[in-house]
Structures are given as structure tokens and as C-alpha cells.
Amino acid sequence: MSEKKLQFDMRLEKVWERREDFMAMNPACDVPVLEEPGHTIICDAYALAEYLDDKYPEPQLYGDTAEARAEVRRLVSWFDGKFHREVTTNLVDEKILKRFLKMGEPNSEAIRAGSTNIHYHLDYIGWLIEERQWLAGDRFSYADISAAAHLSCVDYLGDVPWEEHRPAKEWYARMKSRPSFREILGDHIPGYPPPEYYADPDF
Predict the structure, then answer these.
(1) Which residues, in sequence order, are CB contacts of 3 under 8 Å at separation 6+?
(2) With bands split at pLDDT 50, 70 and 90, how would you rate the model's confidence at 187?
(3) How many CB atoms lie within 10 A of CB 171?
(4) Could you give the CA distance from residue 162 to residue 169 in angstroms, rounded to a whole number?
(5) Contacts for 23 with CB less than 8 Å, ≥ 6 apart
(6) From CA 158, how far away is CA 203, in angstroms rounded?
(7) Cα separation of 24 and 10, whole Å?
(8) What is this structure's pTM?
(9) Exposure pattern of 97-117 as b/e (b: 16+ CB <10 Å)?
(10) What is the structure's pLDDT at 102?
(11) In which band, very low, low, confident or very high, does the pLDDT at 4 lie, cut at 50, 70 and 90?
């Protein structure tokens, strides 16, 4: 929404509390949820992204051709699915989510798996960016937003081996320089500060 220069207010929703008012908005009881003026409710990240591109078409973040949109969707699925399962869940969920939800001690095998798997994904980002300006092509897209969102969570823990993956690091530095993304980098978890370089676009 920031990329599209739309005004909005963010609200924190503790989905695990399963508030009745929130469940009335989204029976799936997950985020994100967009409430438009006039009480139009849009739920689910994919539906919401498509809705924003349909209703507020400038700039197009899915691309302006069928081929471009297919590639963006493929990569969004890659990071929201494959990267999430192989990296985010194994690192962020184990180290942060379990602590807040009091779900026991982190699983060391899962953490090792996430730390191993992330190299494959950073190599893939580097391969993509060798031939393209952005991940899905020569235009910034939802693919970049999805990948950077997951990486920012892992980077908050200091668990991204940037120095071993320079092309991926250079792409992420460009993401960190975007005004829309700098707002995300300003979010902190109480009692769990990020590394000093976390919000620095120059690392």
C-alpha cells in the first residue's frame, strides 16, 4: 500500500487470542485483513494483493502482461510457501514464536535445517538477479516484497549469511532503501532488539 501511495492505519491483531470481532471480519482468524471505507473487508494476502492491483492499478505490482504476472505469482508462491516452510518456520517460529506463545524450547534440529536451507534460497535470489533488475523481471513487484518480508524476519535474528551471498545482499540493500520498506524495518519486538545493521541500507 505504501508503494501505491495509499493512506492507511496499521492495527496490531493478536490472532491467537481469537477475538470475536476480528473473527467476524475474517473467520479464518489470520492476517492480513484490509477494511476499506464503507466497511468493505478483504482477507488473505493473495486476495488482498490482487484486489489492490485491480482497484489501484498504479503502479502495477503484478506486472502488465500475462507472462509477467505469472512469474510474479510463481515467485510469491515460492517465498510464501517454500521459503516459509524451509527457512522462516525453522528459524523465526522456533526462536521467536515459541517464546511468545510459550510453546516450549526451540528445536535445535529445525534451527539447523533453517540455517542450511537459507543458503539455497539466497543462491536462487542471486541467480535471478544476475539476469534481471528485480526478482521477477525488470520491474519491482510483489515478488520482491514477498522475498524481502521473509528475509527481514530472519535478518531480525541475525541469521542471514549475507557475506556469503553478495548478489542477494546487493538486491536486499536496494529493498532496504525503499521508503515503503524502511517503515517495516522500524518495527521492533519488545525485549528482543535486532542487530545494529538491521535497518541500515548499507549494512
Answers:
(1) 59, 61, 140, 145, 178, 180
(2) confident
(3) 24
(4) 6
(5) 29
(6) 12
(7) 19
(8) 0.90
(9) ebeeeeeeebeeebbebbbeb
(10) 74
(11) very high
Between the alpha carbon of residue 165 and those of residues 6, 38, 119, 121, 122, the distances in Å are 34, 46, 8, 10, 6
> CA-to-CA distance for 14 and 20, rounded, in angstroms?
12
Domains (range + CATH), the chain? 1-59 (3.40.30.10), 66-185 (1.20.1050.10)
pLDDT tens for 34-56 read 999 888 999 999 999 999 999 99
**In this prediction, what percent of the chain has a pLDDT beyond 90?**
80
Query: 54: part of which helix (H) or strand (E)?
Result: helix 45-55
Distance CA 64, CA 71 (A): 11
70 closest CA partner among 140, 136, 125: 136
pLDDT at residue 189 above 90? no
Task: Give Cβ neighbours of residue 17 (< 8 Å, ≥ 6 apart).
Answer: none
Copy the grid coordinates of residue 69: 504476472
pLDDT of residue 186: 87
DSSP assignments along 34-51, one per residue: EEETTTEEEESHHHHHHH
Helix (H, G, I), strand (E, B) or coil at 83: helix
Joined together, the cell numbers standing for residue 28 give 479464518
